[in-house]
Amino acid sequence: MNGFETIKEMLPFLIPLALLQIALMVIALVDLVRRKRVKGDSKILWVVLIVFINIIGPIIYLLLGREEE
């Protein structure tokens, strides 16, 4: 079995995972932009966390990074 066939077999699992990752990232980034304040007062750090730590980064932001307004 070559690499292309392996990827083809994994697509039904990879596509929903990729869509979930993109949706979480968009939701977290939109929320971050709309907020006046976040925990730690560093929006740049949160952007890096959300974008580069895949699925876990947006979840961490949504659970811990938001500050009540």
How many separate helices? 3
General form: elongated
The proportion of residues in beta strands is under 5%
- Order of helices and strands, N to C? HHH
Structure class: mainly alpha
Average per-residue pLDDT, rounded, comes to 89
Largest sheet: none
Helix proportion range:
over 70%
- Uncertain segments are none
**C-alpha end-to-end distance:** 55 Å
Gyration radius (Cα, Å) is 16 Å
Number of extended strands: 0
General description of the model:
By secondary structure, this protein is mainly alpha-helical. It has a domain at 19-65. Helix content is 75%, strand content 0%. It is built from 3 helices and no strands. The protein has helices spanning 3-34, 43-52, 56-65. The model has no long low-confidence stretch (mean pLDDT 89).
Write out key terms for the chains shown.
single chain; 69 residues; mainly alpha; elongated
In summary, what is this structure?
This protein has 69 residues and is mostly helical.
Topology:
Blueprint: H1 3-34, H2 43-52, H3 56-65
Helix pairs in contact: 1-2, 1-3, 2-3
